[in-house]
Amino acid sequence: MTRPRPADELAHARRAFFERGNPVGVGELPQTILRSWQRCRRLGLPERDTPSIEPVPESRLHEMRERNERLRRLARAELELLAADADGSGSIVVLTDDTGWILDATGHPQFLDKASRVALRPGACWNEAQAGTNAIGTAIVERRAVEVRGGEHYRAPHGILTCTATPIHDPYGQLVGVLDISGDARAQHLHALGLVRMAVANIEHRFFEGGLDGCELLRLQRDPALLGSTREGLLAFRNGTLVAANQAGLALAGITRDDLGRVAYELLFDEPLSRLRSEGALRDRCGRALYGRIDGAPARVQIALPPARTGEPRPRTAAPRPPVDDGPFFDAACATALARARRVIDAGLPVLVQGETGSGKEVFARALHARSARAGKPFVAVNCAALPEGLIEAELFGYEEGAFTGARRHGSPGLLRQAQGGVLFLDEIGDMPLALQPRLLRVLQERESSPLGGGKPVKLDFDLVCATHCDLDAAVEAGRFRADLYYRIAHHRVRLAPLRESAERGDIVDALWRRVAAGRTLSADARAALAGHRWPGNLRQLDACLRTLVALSDPGDCVGMDALPVELQATAGTPAAPAPRAGGIAPLETLEETAMRDALAACAGNVARAARLLGVNRSTLYRRVGRPKRAS
Question: Considering the entire predicted model, what is its pTM?
Answer without folding.
Answer: 0.50
